[in-house]
């Protein structure tokens, strides 16, 4: 008989609650109390909410902090290839044996009580972080903020809200003001917060919440700003001007993400060297990532192959802008999405630069969008569209002279990274 694995435990944990998402803090507070309140023993926390840019901002902050000799733990979600990616400790991703032990500890203490998969795995992550010495914990919100499982941390060192836009409306509300209110729920009394540039509507909600709870804000476009200047990155705040290289992560949107990360590092007291490392050493897979090795790359031949997990309207705009900066070449899109996403909104900006699309199902996902519906949405935007049985066959059948973009879902991106080795 084969030895049990963390995957088997994770599969069991999925059955503890009938809903994948059920926003409340009650179950978290119950289990954390039974575990001895590990959330009270965490390293200094940088808590990051927002619609887009959370992962890139965290990646840049991690690069900056580590360059300054800091030991950094990181919590992000979802994972791409394997669950272990969600829990990064100062010496690397959590090991299989340690993950198994933590999951089984949480499972035993929970005693079969209802709790969502994200909640109980977040409790396991908090145990790992509380038991592993570090100088900082970069903690990404899973969904929303106010009622997210990570929002049990009473007093982080710093809060960050990246750009807020429409996404997850079925959980957070149909209007950007409602979504901003949920994101602003991470703000805590007396805890400084860095706010990325926002729409007027989102910023007004965040500012009102900050005033209500007494959280001092540092706001993009007001207290700090960032922009590209003659191929360099210019950042300034009350402490002065930084003249830095452009971010190594591709796309104009990464300029704004860099500004948010730099503002965060400056708030924490780090110097220009840490800020330069933040923009030049960050690594973040499946965000305008060019694939250079593996069977899919071999199948693509002379066609360059790109991967991105973005899946909402703002991500579509950012992708179109980033691809538009590359050397001219016909763009062919291979797209798979979840059925909860706005396919038309995501594809509209891409249709301005892409002539053709193949729609695929996201493998192994019950809520994957119907490829026929995705192809119809692409056709409505003026793209030549077809359905492919899978990513590999889509790459094989793509136009011979095209640039290939695989996009539409982090779940699809994770599948591609696994299959491509």
TrEMBL record:
Pathway annotation from the record: Cofactor biosynthesis; tetrahydrofolate biosynthesis; 7,8-dihydrofolate from 2-amino-4-hydroxy-6-hydroxymethyl-7,8-dihydropteridine diphosphate and 4-aminobenzoate: step 2/2; Cofactor biosynthesis; tetrahydrofolylpolyglutamate biosynthesis
A GO term for molecular function: metal ion binding
Cofactor: Mg(2+)
Ranges where the Mur ligase C-terminal domain occurs: 298-409
Keywords linked to the UniProt accession: ATP-binding, Folate biosynthesis, Ligase, Magnesium, Metal-binding, Nucleotide-binding
EC class: ligase
Residue span, Mur ligase central domain: 48-263
Any one of the GO CC terms: cytoplasm
Record carries keyword Ligase: yes
Pfam families attached to this UniProt entry: Mur_ligase_C (PF02875), Mur_ligase_M (PF08245)
Reactions it catalyzes: (6S)-5,6,7,8-tetrahydrofolyl-(gamma-L-Glu)(n) + L-glutamate + ATP = (6S)-5,6,7,8-tetrahydrofolyl-(gamma-L-Glu)(n+1) + ADP + phosphate + H(+); (6R)-5,10-methylenetetrahydrofolyl-(gamma-L-Glu)(n) + L-glutamate + ATP = (6R)-5,10-methylenetetrahydrofolyl-(gamma-L-Glu)(n+1) + ADP + phosphate + H(+); 10-formyltetrahydrofolyl-(gamma-L-Glu)(n) + L-glutamate + ATP = 10-formyltetrahydrofolyl-(gamma-L-Glu)(n+1) + ADP + phosphate + H(+); 7,8-dihydropteroate + L-glutamate + ATP = 7,8-dihydrofolate + ADP + phosphate + H(+)
EC number of the protein: 6.3.2.12, 6.3.2.17
GO biological process, one term: folic acid biosynthetic process
Family matches, as InterPro entries: Folylpolyglutamate_synth, Folylpolyglutamate_synth_CS, Mur-like_cat_sf, Mur_ligase_C, Mur_ligase_C_dom_sf, Mur_ligase_cen
Protein task: Functions in two distinct reactions of the de novo folate biosynthetic pathway. Catalyzes the addition of a glutamate residue to dihydropteroate (7,8-dihydropteroate or H2Pte) to form dihydrofolate (7,8-dihydrofolate monoglutamate or H2Pte-Glu). Also catalyzes successive additions of L-glutamate to tetrahydrofolate or 10-formyltetrahydrofolate or 5,10-methylenetetrahydrofolate, leading to folylpolyglutamate derivatives.
Family designation: Belongs to the folylpolyglutamate synthase family.
Protein's UniProt name: Dihydrofolate synthase/folylpolyglutamate synthase
Organism: Pontivivens ytuae
């Amino acid at each position: 008989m084969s030895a049990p694995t963390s995957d088997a435990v994770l599969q069991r944990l999925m059955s503890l609650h009938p809903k994948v998402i059920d926003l409340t803090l009650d179950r978290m507070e119950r289990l954390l109390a039974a575990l001895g309140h590990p959330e009270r023993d965490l390293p200094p926390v940088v808590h990051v909410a927002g619609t887009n840019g959370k992962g890139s901002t965290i990646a840049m902050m991690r690069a900056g902090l580590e360059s300054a000799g800091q030991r950094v733990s990181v919590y992000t979600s979802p994972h791409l290839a394997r669950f272990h990616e969600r829990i990064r400790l100062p010496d690397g991703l959590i090991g299989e044996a340690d993950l198994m032990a933590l999951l089984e500890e949480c499972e035993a203490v929970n005693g079969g009580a209802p709790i969502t998969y994200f909640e109980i795995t977040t409790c396991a992550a908090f145990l790992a972080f509380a038991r592993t010495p570090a100088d900082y914990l970069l903690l990404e919100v899973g969904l929303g903020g106010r009622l997210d499982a990570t929002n049990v941390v009473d007093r982080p060192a710093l809060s960050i809200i990246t750009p807020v836009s429409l996404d997850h409306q079925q959980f957070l509300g149909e209007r950007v003001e409602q979504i901003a209110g949920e994101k602003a729920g991470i703000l805590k009394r007396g805890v400084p917060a860095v706010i990325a540039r926002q729409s007027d509507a989102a910023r007004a909600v965040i500012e009102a919440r900050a005033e209500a709870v007494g959280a001092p804000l540092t706001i993009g476009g007001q207290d700090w700003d960032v922009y590209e200047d003659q191929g360099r990155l210019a950042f300034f705040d009350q402490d002065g001007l930084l003249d830095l290289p452009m971010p190594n992560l591709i796309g104009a949107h990464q300029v704004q993400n860099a500004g948010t990360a730099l503002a965060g590092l400056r708030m924490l007291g780090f110097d220009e060297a840490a800020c330069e490392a933040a923009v030049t050493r960050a690594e973040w897979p499946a965000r305008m990532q060019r694939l250079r090795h593996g069977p899919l790359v071999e199948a693509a031949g002379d066609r360059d192959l790109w991967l991105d997990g973005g899946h909402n309207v703002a991500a579509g705009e950012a992708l179109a802008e980033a691809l538009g900066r590359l050397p001219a070449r016909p763009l062919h899109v291979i797209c798979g999405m979840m059925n909860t996403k706005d396919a038309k909104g995501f594809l509209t900006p891409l249709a301005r630069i892409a002539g053709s699309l193949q729609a695929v199902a996201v493998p192994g996902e019950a809520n994957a969008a119907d490829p026929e519906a995705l192809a119809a949405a692409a056709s409505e935007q003026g793209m030549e569209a077809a359905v492919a049985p899978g990513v590999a066959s889509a790459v094989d059948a793509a136009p011979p002279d095209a640039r290939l973009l695989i996009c539409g879902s982090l779940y699809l991106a994770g599948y591609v990274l696994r299959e491509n080795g």
